[in-house]
């Protein structure tokens, strides 16, 4: 039956493959959905059968483990015996074990022969850790384990049985069950008992269950396939009717009203199809209005900046934006600073900035950033990332990362998460966007200083707390002004591999030097910053702290000096 089912599934998959490459959309949809249905039903049936089979086998073995629990006391009696050196003594013990098992275990039929067990064995653990067979009783059934097989399962399960002080069971390669147990009272039992039982009763139940799974699965697949085919046929019929009428309208043989009023026989028309017909019926009247809207959109895009203003203000369209609209926004701000034109001709500088802005625009779109503002000299931009701070981080890494063949100073990216007010002010003729945030105002003042120090990317503590697990950074100090304080972290992943590694190697030393500086120990701090610069000569942050330590040592500032970055 299993072979027949597999053959049927193969034939079905072949038919679905033919449908998939047909020119009919209905057949393609049916093929895809039917394939997914077949896979789902097959997977569920297989997993359900596998779990049920495993559960039934486990329960069956557990039941025999309960029956055989009395033999554990027999194992304890073996541990107390001292004269078991003769074959006759072991013969007697084997008879006792056999009688105990025959009294304890239920009778099963295997190959027409009734028995309580297939194999009963007693193994003794020798001083070297290996096991030697002392008793091996077997029925005449074909499923009996060999002595080597018994020793194998003893070696595999004995330690677990000793440690758990219970019966440990498993299924053999021959399709039988094996139970291994020892004296439950002993810490390190010397004798290990093994009993092999037949799984014929549970295998018969499993076979019946398998047939039920196959029958019910096939029936469910058949019924759902018929329903799926019916639904797709009805949908296809409606679509064909719509296409036919639309073609006649396009040819001028009918008008749009005939499309709206077209019926599809006695079948009930879906709401989606009815809405589609109504939408198509409005095309002729909407064309003029759409052209007018496009004109107004272009007009408003020239008046307003940036283009994503409607997204920030929560408007459906730019046409809804009016002067006076404002909103409180919380998100991650990205300050992007490019170097000023130094040493390049005007044309070369413009070409470079054109490449940089094109690349920035691509990354902005990829990571869903919104351009807030820029300046007239093309050096500084502000972008907003409203959703995930992680996207702002990856955007910054892309922009600040070194480019192939880069010879100019790199761009600098500063990330800060804050709340601010964003809105539009002006009149119908001219409008401007504005941002109100004291934090943004303060941070913007230091962007160029960070860039001039060669730092590629930095984030405030408000951002670093959210992305700490996503990147590698080091604390470089804080900014303080007007009651606002921001901790700054340098993102090391933005550097080329060699520079990044040098900063990683000196990270702990830099941190210790900075702590000494904060504690007012300018002498030791200076020495540590000097060591940092020996290992990482391009660390401008360490150089700035070194100069400040020297200044504090050579003046009477003492502990009154401000520890904030870029402080006077």
Question: Please, could you describe this protein's structure?
Answer:
- The protein has 568 residues and is α+β, with helices and mostly antiparallel strands.
- Among the domains are: 68-198, Beta-Lactamase (2-Layer Sandwich), CATH 3.30.450; 309-494, Nucleotide cyclase, GGDEF domain (Alpha-Beta Plaits); 496-568, no CATH class.
- It has helices at 2-20, 25-67, 70-80, 87-104, 147-164, 200-250, 256-261, 271-281, 283-303, 309-312, 346-366, 389-400, 438-452, 461-467, 497-505, 507-518, 522-535, 540-554, and strands at residues 108-110, 113-115, 119-125, 131-138, 168-171, 177-182, 191-197, 326-337, 370-374, 380-385, 412-426, 431-436, 457-460, 473-481, 484-491.
- Strands 8, 9, 10, 11, 12, 13, 14 and 15 form an eight-stranded mixed β-sheet that branches. A five-stranded antiparallel β-sheet has the order 4-3-7-6-5, with helices on both faces.
- A hairpin with an 8-residue loop joins strand 6 (177-182) and strand 7 (191-197).
- Helix 1 (2-20) packs antiparallel against helix 2 (25-67), helix 16 runs antiparallel to helix 17 and helix 17 runs antiparallel to helix 18 (540-554).
- The mean pLDDT is 79.
The CATH superfamily of one domain is known as Nucleotide cyclase, GGDEF domain
Task: Note the total helix count.
Answer: 18
The total beta strand count reads 15
Query: What is the C-alpha radius of gyration, as a whole number of Å?
Result: 40 Å
Helix content percent band: 40-55%
Instruction: Decide which structural class fits the backbone.
Output: alpha+beta
CATH class of one domain: Alpha Beta
- Low-confidence sequence ranges: none
Mean pLDDT: 79
Cα-to-Cα separation, first versus last residue: 88 Å
Principal-axis shape equals: flat
| CATH architect. name of one domain | 2-Layer Sandwich
* SS strand fraction: 15-25%
Largest sheet: 8 strands, mixed
């Amino acid at each position: 039956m299993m072979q027949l089912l597999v053959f049927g599934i193969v034939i079905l998959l072949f038919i679905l493959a033919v449908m998939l490459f047909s020119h009919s959309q209905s057949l393609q949809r049916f093929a895809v959905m039917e394939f997914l249905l077949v896979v789902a039903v097959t997977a569920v049936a297989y997993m359900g059968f596998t779990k049920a089979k495993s559960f039934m086998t486990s329960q069956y073995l557990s039941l025999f483990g309960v029956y055989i629990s009395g033999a554990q006391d027999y194992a304890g009696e073996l541990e107390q015996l001292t004269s078991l050196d003769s074959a006759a003594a072991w013969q007697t013990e084997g008879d006792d074990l056999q009688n105990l098992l025959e009294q304890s275990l239920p009778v099963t039929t295997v190959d027409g022969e009734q028995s309580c067990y297939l194999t009963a064995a007693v193994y003794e653990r020798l001083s070297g850790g290996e096991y030697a067979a002392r008793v091996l009783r077997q029925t005449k059934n074909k499923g009996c384990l060999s002595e080597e097989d018994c020793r194998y399962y003893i070696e595999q399960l004995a330690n677990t049985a000793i440690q758990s002080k219970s019966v440990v069971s498993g299924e053999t390669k021959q399709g039988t069950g094996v139970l291994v147990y020892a004296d439950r009272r002993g810490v390190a039992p010397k004798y290990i008992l093994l009993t092999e039982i037949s799984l014929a009763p549970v295998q018969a139940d499993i076979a019946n269950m398998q047939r039920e799974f196959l029958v019910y699965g096939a029936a469910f697949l058949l019924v759902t396939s018929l329903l799926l085919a019916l639904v797709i046929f009805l949908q296809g019929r409606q679509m064909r009717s719509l296409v036919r009428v639309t073609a006649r309208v396009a040819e001028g043989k009918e008008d749009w009203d005939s499309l709206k009023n077209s019926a599809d026989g006695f079948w009930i028309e879906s709401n989606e199809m009815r809405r589609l017909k109504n939408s198509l019926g409005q095309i002729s009247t909407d064309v003029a209005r759409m052209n007018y809207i496009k004109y107004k959109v272009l007009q408003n895009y020239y008046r307003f900046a940036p283009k994503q203003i409607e997204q920030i203000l929560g408007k459906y369209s730019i046409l809804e934006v009016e002067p006076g609209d404002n909103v409180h926004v919380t998100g991650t701000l990205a300050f992007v600073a490019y170097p000023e034109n130094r040493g390049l001709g005007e044309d070369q500088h413009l070409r470079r900035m054109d490449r940089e802005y094109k690349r920035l625009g691509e990354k902005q779109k990829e990571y869903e950033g919104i351009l807030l503002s820029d300046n007239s000299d093309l050096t500084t931009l502000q972008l907003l990332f409203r959703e995930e701070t992680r996207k702002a981080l990856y955007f910054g890494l892309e922009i600040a990362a070194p480019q192939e063949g880069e010879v100019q100073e790199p761009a600098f990216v500063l990330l800060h998460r804050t709340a601010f007010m964003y809105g539009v002010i002006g009149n119908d003729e001219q409008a401007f966007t504005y941002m109100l945030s004291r934090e943004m105002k303060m941070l913007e003042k230091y962007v160029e200083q960070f860039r001039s120090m060669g730092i590629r990317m930095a984030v405030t503590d408000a951002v670093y707390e959210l992305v700490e697990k996503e990147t590698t950074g080091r604390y470089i100090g804080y900014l303080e002004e007007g009651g606002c304080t921001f901790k700054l972290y340098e993102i090391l992943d933005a550097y080329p591999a060699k520079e990044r590694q040098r900063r990683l190697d000196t990270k702990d030393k830099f941190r210790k030097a900075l702590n000494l500086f904060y504690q007012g120990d300018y002498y030791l701090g200076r020495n540590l910053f000097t060591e940092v610069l020996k290992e990482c000569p391009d660390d401008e942050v360490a150089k700035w702290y070194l100069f400040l330590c020297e200044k504090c040592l050579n003046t009477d500032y003492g502990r009154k000096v401000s520890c904030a970055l870029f402080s006077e």
